[in-house]
Amino acid sequence: MKNFKSFLASKEFIILDGAMGTMLTSFGMESGACPELENITAPERVIKIAESYAAAGSDIVYTNTFGASLHKLPEGFTPETVIPTAIKNAREGIRRAGKTALVALDVGPLGIMTEISGGTATFDEAYDDFAVQVKAAVNSEFPPDLITIETMSDLLETKAAILAVKENCDLPLMVTMTFEGNGRTFTGTPLSAFALTAQGLGVDALGINCSQGPKEYFKLFEELKKYTDLPLIAKANAGMPDPETGKYGVNAEDFAEEMLGLISQGVKIFGGCCGTTPEFIAALKASLEGKNYTKQPKVSFSAITSALKTVIIDRPRIIGERINPTGKKIFKEALKNNDIGYIVRQAAEQDNAGADILDVNVSLPDIDEISMSKNVINAISTVCDLPLQIDSSSAEVIESSLRIYPGKPIVNSVNGEISTLENILPSVKKYGAAVVGLTIDENGIPKTAEKRFEIAERILEKALEYGIRREDVYIDCLTLTASAEQENVYETVKALRMVKEKLGLKTVLGVSNISFGLPRRELVNENFLAMALANGLDLPIINPNAEGMTGAVRAYNLLMNLDKNAIEYIGAYSGSFEKKSDSGQQDLTLEYAVRNGLSSETAVITKKLLETNAPLEIVDNMLIPVLDEIGVEFEQGKIFLPQLIMAANTVTASFNEIKRALSGTPVESKGTVVLATVKGDVHDIGKNIVKVLMENYGYTVIDLGKDVAPEVVADSAKTSGAKLVGLSALMTTTLASMESTIKLIRERGLDCKIVVGGAVLTAEYAEKIGADYYAKDAKQSVDIARIVYQK
Amino acid sequence: MIEEINLAETFSYLGFRGDLPDERIMSAIKRCEGVLLDTITPRFIYKVTETANPLLVGNDIAELLADCEKAAIFCCTLGQQTDRLIISAGVRDLSEQLYYDALANAAIEQVCDKAEEIIRKAYPEYSLTTRFSPGYGDFPLALQPRIIEFLDAKKLIGVTVNESLLMVPTKSVSAVLGLKKG
Prior knowledge:
Number of strands of chain A: 23
Distance between the termini of chain B: 28 Å
Number of strands of chain B: 6
CATH topology of the largest domain in chain A: TIM Barrel
Helix content of chain B: 40-55%
CATH superfamily of the largest domain in chain A: Homocysteine-binding-like domain
Number of helices of chain A: 30
Number of helices of chain B: 7
Distance between the termini of chain A: 74 Å
CATH topology of chain B: NADH Oxidase
Largest sheet of chain A: 8 strands, parallel
Oligomer: heterodimer
Helix content of chain A: 40-55%
CATH class of chain B: Alpha Beta
CATH architecture of chain B: 3-Layer(aba) Sandwich
């Protein structure tokens, strides 16, 4: 069945089936058995269920394949063996009922989480598993009529499943995720992010299944329908199960009655999930009889999303520009050293400062931009909720980044050149992103506003041709430098206004170039920003850490009555008026500041000391003696871990000043240490504490993160030439991978010592698995580093 | 489900041996407590079964359930957003990360207590044994995936188990309780 739209149009409402598991159990499936294997071991049960649902009035019957993935099927079974039989069983049931219901291949979650949701599965692993299921179905003797993805809670996993369907067949696709009463999935994805992402990826219908009864669905659909005009699906539970009997609380009549309420929310496709039976479906069909579908109004707005946060562009929103190596020495170093932690900190800092969206540009000659971009996006998405703007001049980087992005991002950018439009717009369409169009083409940036407007029109036209929605096209009229082209500054503002007024498109502008080459750049930047905002700028690309710039946007939103009751403005600034005074700081010693966790004071004192002392002198003669003392007090039980860490954090502030003073040339290192939490383990607080303390003592730490494979540790130890490798594990189950990491390092004959630590380790066990040292805490690992590097 | 976090317990997780933290650390911990309470989404499920259940194996469990007629198997969690808060705090400030981690450990214990209370109310004619979790004694941690499956915990409260037998979200607990008549 290719034409889903006309199928939907042929009926007032579409009725799905009810629960599979509930039915299998009632037909005698043993508890603990794999439901999908019933297709093979007890086909009559499965056929009977399909027959009952078809007879009860289901227009679409789902196959018994919810868990038919490589990850979930027991050994000896594959999707290829289970899925074709399941489809055949569903068809046979419908035939016996004498009905013409359609068969939907049912695809459920893999039971593992992707990295951004706390799991270890990569996008590609999830995609491959789903692709095997889809191919097994569409290549079978009796392919399904459509595909349904259901009960999802992880947005990235859902995206992998959608792409696996769209790239391997052209069957219609319905997608439902599971939401709690608070409107979020278990992994935190809000309804809006799901709707924007799934609609962008081109699904045919979307909605909610499982988790709640129909009553609770009402509020969820009220929210969901704001973000999509696709047909909506509701497949609710019959309430919640009883802990002892497993029976669900809502009966068929009440269920059907309560589901009716969802008509007013625009639901077109109705069904039942856990606890519902053919009786429920029959009651549902009867109650829908004679009722009319409430067609949803078209929705039209500009919005983007991460897996956790939707940003609607209904007022100026700040795009943070700091994740970009251009003109940034330290950032370039970080890229070269694969120091993703540094980049993630830039993300967190901008988030804190008030950014709404983050631009991500990691292009640098001699690095693999594709894998860097993917790794950075993944790492940022794990800790920061802001949606991202993927910024690259390479179509391949854009494509591969769009693919693994959990949500709906912005692509930065295309321009008026036909070749870039044809290279990049297909990916924008395929992945449902928004796109920035620069008003420049092969002839350069036109001087006049009118000419730039023409390019904007051309970009829009081409985007619409590719099927991209008008609301998803943003135009950047390009800032010129006032010191070089003063007479053209206002042309940018004029063009921006024209685009906004005549085309009704959202506008983007990188602001700070305006002041290049001028003194007191912030004055020019802030005023230009205010001018642009007043003329219709929606998305200023700025440094959110520059208080005047972020403040200008917040003040604009306040003055234009967009920030109602000044909630955001007051939230950002109330309580920030007690400016830290400089007085009194002269009296503080570095030791006092460090011991009391006074980071900003420590920075000021360090700055002052740098006027009269060499950087290394400060480290060796001032910081390390203080740390030593604190370390001894920690060992003696006079102070505790929180105080030790507080002091360590403060020393980091001092180090940052020292680094700044050296402007890019690294502080002389005491030696290199590779740190990792071993494969399979995701506990990294202990390792992070060791890292900070080691850095405080002047060691260069290569932090490989958590869940690190033995090969990665060994490779890093080799290329860095580190004389010390630190491994951490918190669980008994991951000690084996600690052991195999040590083994691999030994096998490769690397000239390095290995120190291990973590809650479950003991000195004896450390020795048994071949480590050189056991450290009971962070302080001890520093002592060990000193021993190793003294030799 | 919980309105405040057991701070005494939190301090002990942080390594304060009986001492109270100084004012600066105390106020930081209290600030973190507020954020954590806004972040957690405590969820809990249980099933009550016969004591003869293929999941209830080992000498320790046999001892625990010796005079019991039934057993309750439960799982509770603080939710994925809690993990995310702890991880993202690590990017900004290691101290905060440590506080959140300790507070969350205290909070999940409180959620376990609540769970126990709910089971106790549902079975007033029974008394409950202590809680016993996979990985204690000879009750194998390897059973964790089957316990999660048995409870349908992924679907009902969003808890899964990874290849290292670690529960995701990490601030989750599964345990067995015996139900004894009288």
